[in-house]
Amino acid sequence: MTDTVFRPYSESDALRSDRSAGDRVRHRQKVRDAIRENISDIVAEESIIGQSRDKIVKVPIRGIREYRFVYGEDEPGVGAGDGETKPGQVISTSDEGEGQAGTAGDRPGIDYYETEITLEELVDIMFEDLALPDMERKKLREIPEESARKRKGFRKVGIRVHLDKKRTAISRIRRKVATQKAISDEDEAPRFPFHRDDLKYRRLVRDIRMQSNAVVLCIMDTSGSMDTMKKYLARSFFFLLYQFVRTRYNNVDVVFIAHHTEAREVSEEEFFTKGESGGTMISSGYHKALEIIEERYHPSLWNIYAFHCSDGDNWSHDNAATLKSARALCEISNLFGYGEIKPLNSGYYGESLLKFFEKIKATNFQALLIEGKNDIWPSFKTFLSHEQVAETATY
Amino acid sequence: MPSSWTIKDLEHWDAKIREKVEEFGLSCFPQEFAVCDHEQMLGYMAYQGMPAHYPHWSYGKSYEKLKTLYNYGVTGLPYEMVINANPALAYLMGANSLCLQILTIAHVYGHNDFFRNNFMFRDTRPELALSQFKLRADRVRRYVEDPSIGLQQVEEVLDAAHALSLQCRRDTAIRKLSQEEQQTQALAAAEPPHDPFASIHKPQQYEAPDLHKVPLEPEADILLFIAEHNRYLAEWQKDLLHMVHEDAQYFIPQIETKIMNEGWASYWHHKIVNSLDLPENLHLEFLVHHNQVISPHRGSLNPYHVGFNIWHDIQRHYDEPTDEEIAQYGAPEKSGMDKLFEVRETDRDISFLRRFLTERLMREMDLFEYQRKGSRYVVSHVSDEEHWQTVKETLLHNTGMATVPMIRIIDADHEHNRVLLLEHEHDGRGLHPEYVEKTLGYIYRLWGRKVLLQTVVGDKPVTLSYDHAGFGRRED
Questions:
Q1: Are residues A160 and A257 in the same domain?
Q2: Whole-angstrom Cα distance, residue A117 to residue A54?
Q3: Candidate from B258, B299, B431 with C-beta closest to A92
């Protein structure tokens, strides 16, 4: 038998040996793809609605499984006990039972795992899924704003803090090499100091960027007939709209308008939690929205997105006024939508305004029916597809 | 890395351990040890221990999983990893104490001896193992970089091939018959049996066997069969299938001898370290670690624990048989040590458990059978007089390759339409429905034509199918 070889630990090897990096990246990609495929389920999860952007959310995904032929989960297994095991004893519950499942590869185990990503990343994935073309913003609704200065080239004069040391050193070396021939005969290399001509300063110019502003108007019916479930659906929709608008504008404001027979501007918390009673006059909400736009969000400076959620119960004598103000809203907003929330099994099927809103022919208007959690993502997609139509129409 | 020992210490103890290894009659490959840190160890574990391995996202997944479990302290890292190669390669965790390193080195020699002598490992070609893995890795990388192939296509083939890598012949000690031999055998089998009274009997009907059927005999090596018989596959695709098959062939002996192998190594580290005359503090530490290694894992099976106990029991049976055992089996013909060496050569886990796991041992280790009831795992049988055989049968079903359903190709030209007909050899256990569907999809991807699988769901025979329209199921 030849001698045993011992190879000592070498730190440099260890640093170089992140061999799985490429395969990990590929795995992450596949996880991302899986999230994209399940996006409508995830959007329907309550946990992500109404969270701040840097918050890390846990997204349940049906893991990237490696399928093979295996036996079903109900087949028995064998374990060792402490000497006092009795038939009928419970050894574990399957939620934590992954470790119980014997040697590798023999059981499917629980591959349903959660991955953690930031809400930001999730929102990116969501809108990637929409595959929206990059649309140019409307010129009228942008205001120029002088933001930070931008670098643009170099120059020979400037203030000291703008001195680019690396380039200065390089040009000194360049000059030295160029003059070398002449001085190479002398034995002693003379000092070769920097010269004024060597100095290089960064040149900064003022940068004018277009600042784009958008306002999201969330209008909701808070009359007695709007229950928690309906409000939750509405909230999910508003959340998506807000996140979407945020990805496209620098500066986004949100306005919450609650209405029953009268409309009020309220805080977010009030908007989603407080219920009120009484009847419904939708026109009041639209009037309030128009009023707020008039006061604070002039359409020449702001891109306006308005969405209204209601269960469709409106006082019939209000309908004419509603139609008129809805048309007015269409004219000034980028996108205006009406979502009628009628959860399935809600028992009571009242009137519907969907038919009524068909009278509005504007391309940037869309009326949707939302019956449950699973409708939210598809309807949101349809809603946005109207923006594309509307925008192409303006050009 | 700060540690209380130096390479010199390891060499010192290694020399002593090797003296013992030779004295006890183990026969090992030359051994190499590499000291590594935990990141490297995780890396080796994710790639099945191999220093070079082809890339695939599943190894990235396995790394992330191992790392998460390690970071959250759910599982520790193994003290060592040994590769079946010649010279054998083992990794030592640099952060371990000297005592653990001594235990580990002795343990490694146990594995080394097992790799070299057990019959399952005869065809693994250990002298080439590491370079083979490296060559395969280079080939896969070349395909990935080839602009006419690329990562996506390579992944599609590898994903499908990985799903089928363990669908292969089990009885590797029996030579696979060539096409001609199978034909001769089929002809011989069709011959009517010899009849001494042929003169007074009606002549027997001779039915000529169909020698053109493909495959002639049911075929278990699914990847090889597809590589050979799907002529629409490109050379590189066939190469990938062969590669995954060879990879699996290398690891199957280890799957098949997990309990024996770990038990054997534990038996020897225990015996060797005890004979080393360690200073008392080291020896006490050794006992603590040793007891940890071979302690039962409640609710599951620790192969170190089961293996260690069985090996000791075999030795006891031959060296100090009880009166009952003499009455039942007669006086032993050989010494315990001779028997141990014999068994380490001729058995694999399934035969090892079947032959040497006695009712008494099962009761001592309190082995029980559990079953899922709703969301809970409940003990269904314990090793009492009435049920120990049931528990043992279940254990055998959950050992080595018996955990992989046996699925064979019956016909490659079913319905004269190149439909691939598969049969599941049903042993009472049903296939996992979701996994069957996806795996059939992978076979369809590789075969390119409709795939049928005959199996049993509940009590009813069922034919599952997969074609361009997707998954289907038909009750027969």
A1: no
A2: 9
A3: B299
Distance CA B475, CA A261 (A): 62
Q: Do A153 and A189 fall into the same domain?
A: yes
ipTM over 0.85: yes
Here the tokens at position B347 are 């058995």
DSSP A375: G
Per-position DSSP letters for A77-145, written without gaps between them: EEEE-SS---TT-EEEETTSGGGGS-STTSS----EEEEEEEHHHHHHHHHHHHT---PPPPGGGEEEE
Q: Which amino acid is at B145?
A: E
Share of chain A above pLDDT 90, in %: 6
What is the tens place of the pLDDT at every residue in B358-393? Answer: 999 999 999 999 988 887 888 999 999 999 999 999
The answer to whether the Cβ–Cβ distance between B60 and A27 falls below 8 Å is: yes
For residue B215, say if its preceding peptide bond is cis, omega within 30 degrees of 0.
Answer: yes
Q: Measured between CB atoms, does B70 come within 8 Å of chain A?
A: no
Find the mean pLDDT for residues A20-28.
88
Q: Which residues contact B422 (CB under 8 A, 6 or more apart)?
A: B222, B407, B408, B409, B410, B443, B451, B452, B453, B454
- Which residues between 243 and 272 in chain B have a beta carbon less than 8 angstroms from any beta carbon of chain A? 255, 258
Closest Cβ opposite residue A22 in set B37, B55, B404: B55
Inform me whether the C-beta atom of residue B30 falls under 8 Å from chain A C-beta atoms: yes
Does any domain span residue A360?
Answer: yes
**The pLDDT of residue B54:** 94
- Angstrom CA distances, B23 to A19, B318, B371, stand at 40, 21, 46
Distance of alpha carbon A216 from alpha carbon A256, whole angstroms: 8
**Does A341 lie in the same domain as A220?**
yes
Torsion of CA B424, B430, B435, B437, to 10 degrees: 60
Size of chain A in residues: 395
Do B157 and B446 touch, CB atoms closer than 8 A? yes
- Using DSSP, how many helices (H) and how many strands (E) does chain A show? 11, 12
B301 to A79: CB separation less than 8 angstroms, yes or no: yes
Best to test chain A binding among B35, B435, B442, B445 (most A CBs inside 10 Å): B435
A73 has a chain B CB within 8 A of its CB: yes
Q: Which of A187, A206, A225 is the last residue of a domain?
A: A206
Quick check: is A86 in a domain? no
Closest alpha carbon to A171 in A192, A149, A199: A199
Contact A114, A35 (CB under 8 A): no
Q: Which domain holds residue A389?
A: 211-394
pLDDT, position B369: 92
> Which residue shows structure tokens 């918050």?
A55
Q: Is the dihedral angle over the CA atoms B250, B255, B257, B260 positive or is it negative?
A: positive
| Average pLDDT, integer, range A361-390 | 75
Q: Does A22 touch chain B (CB under 8 A)?
A: yes
Residues from chain A that touch B431, judged by Cβ atoms under 8 A, are: 69-72
Cα gap A173→A186, rounded to integer Å: 19
Give yes or no: residues A242 and A385 share one domain: yes
Q: Show Cβ contacts of residue B143 under 8 Å, excluding neighbours closer than 6 positions.
A: B149, B154, B236, B239, B240
For chain A, the domain total comes to: 3
Domain end, chosen from A190, A206, A222, is at A206
Which residues does chain B have within 8 Å of residue A97's beta carbon, measured at their own beta carbons?
A: 377
Is the CB of A38 inside 8 Å of chain B's CB atoms? no
| Helix, strand and coil in chain B, % to nearest 5 | 50, 15, 35
Q: Which residue has the higher pLDDT, B443 or B191?
A: B443
Burial degree of A94 (CB within 10 A; 0-12, 13-18, 19+): middle
Cα(B175)–Cα(B258) distance, rounded to whole angstroms?
Answer: 23
Across A122-131, A323-332, B47-56, B78-87, which has the greatest mean pLDDT?
A: B47-56
Q: Is the pLDDT of residue A109 over 50?
A: no
